[in-house]
Every structure is written in C-alpha cells, then in structure tokens.
Amino acid sequence: MLTSILHRFSGVALSVGTLLFVGWLLALAGGPADYATYVAAVSSWFGQLVLIGVSLAAFFHLANGIRHLFWDAGLGFEKTTATRTAWAVLSSSCGATALFWLVIYLG
Q: CB neighbours (10 Å) of residue 37?
C-alpha cells in the first residue's frame, strides 16, 4: 500500500521537476542575469533539497514502474514476493539517489 501511495506522490514530484526544468530553459533563454539568478536559487540549500527530492522521485518511479511491469506479466503477486519487491524498490531508489548525488558532487 505504501509503495502505491508513494508511486502517485513521485509522479506529482516529477511534474514539479518538469516545471523546474522548464524554468531552467526559460532562464537559459532569458540571458546571463536570469540564468545566474536561477543557478543561485537551485544552488541554495533549499534548492539542493528540492533537486535531491526530485531525483529520489525519479528513481523511485522508475524502480516501481519496473515492478509494475512484472505485475502486468502476472508475476510477483504473492504476499512475500510483493513485500520483498516493495523493500527492493525503496532501497534501490534510495541507493541510486545517493550514488547519483555522490557522482555529482565528487565527479
């Protein structure tokens, strides 16, 4: 049940992420001053927190979408399997987000 609710929430978060991407494109088209303002906003601690949240939503939505593909094939409906795959989705999305941001900051 939790992963179903989080899947819907991650879809909404990805919509917000799309708006952030459109804002970035508009700032890029607006010139150096607009772009510098946008970069300053997303570089703040709050902006970074939002970007991390959007990337977590993207990885979660991807992992849970793969889980749903197996469900569409009729696999994974047993209670123990569903519980294990729910934990796999949660842990893999957190791990992928952490790895992604480590690569961003260290790479």
A: 11
Q: Tell me the residue length of the chain.
A: 107
**Each residue's pLDDT tens digit, 68-86:** 999 999 999 999 999 999 9
The Cα 79–Cα 63 span in angstroms is: 19
Rounded CA-CA distance 65/75 in Å is 14
Residue 91 has pLDDT above 90, yes or no: yes
- The overall pTM is greater than 0.90: yes
Sort 80 into a burial class: Cβ within 10 Å, 0-12 / 13-18 / 19+. exposed
Supply the pLDDT for residue 50.
96
Between the alpha carbon of residue 55 and those of residues 28, 77, 78, 99, 101, the distances in Å are 21, 28, 30, 11, 9
Q: How far apart are CA 44 and CA 3, in angstroms?
A: 30
